[in-house]
Amino acid sequence: MDASPREQDGTAPDEQRWRAAGDRIETLLEASSAGGTVARERAEQLVREVVELYGAGLARVVDLLDTGTLELLARDDLVASLLLVHGLHPHEVDVRVRAALDSVRPYLGSHGGDVTLVGIVDGVVRLELTGSCRSCPSSSVTLELAVEDAVRAAAPEIEAIEVVAAQPEPAEPIAPESLFSRVRSNDRAPGSWVAVPELAELGPGEVGGFTVAGLTVLACRVGEQLFAYRDHCPACAHSLAGAALHRRAGAPVGDAVLRCPVCRAHYDVVRAGARIDGDGHLEPLPVLVRSGELSVAVPVGVPG
Fold first, then answer.
1. How much of the chain is helix, strand and coil, in % rounded to 5?
2. Lowest mean pLDDT among 8-17, 64-73, 221-230
3. Was domain 193-298 assigned CATH 3.40.50.1820?
4. Could you give a single Gene Ontology term from the biological process aspect (predicted)?
């Protein structure tokens, strides 16, 4: 299935337009520079005046709202971003960061991992990552996308995110700080989120193929949870098209094994795609609900 979801939902184009408003404003300011320094300064002043005007109006609206209504408004991404810009959000930064971490905790749990907020000092958020998929570098990319994107969306005013080392575990874990450094050390952007509402059509136990931003993705549903992986078997380098989910004999409910239709290699879908019968690892991609839409994070630079 080819995913061009923004055009399928009547509200999605508007949502996408407002999300890109900052970029459009910056582009217009850059264009004004062609008229010289004075023209640029006047354009910037105009933007400031408009922002302050609407900010003052928004502050008066907030003063008239009861706590319950303000809480409801703060749950909307666009309204929340406006409240944050004008310092009117009802929640302090630590509350927002904790809520953001809670939103991605189910995804981290599917990788056998977890995240803890150590503290926020001088605009720096310090986290401790534990567990997670230990043997696959690509998993560190997806974990960064999920955690950092959620935290920065909830608290855009933070200066940086730091990861402190957890206590060593018997499984020889990847150092937690590497989860945030691997992508940057490769000199590439971590990736982008693409809305794929078609994922919601998958029923329990079903597997489907989707084209997301040019990348072929294999998605499957285990119970209420959705999992997405790059359509590539590391054992035989073939597509996983036609693969089905199986439950191992004697395994508890929720066990899900994906078998490559070409080489018969078996992968644990729930535990980050780790191979069960040998070495290798599927490449997991985060699946989260963003702005009310199921979205998949696709790393930049990964060939489709």
1. 40, 25, 40
2. 8-17
3. no
4. iron-sulfur cluster assembly
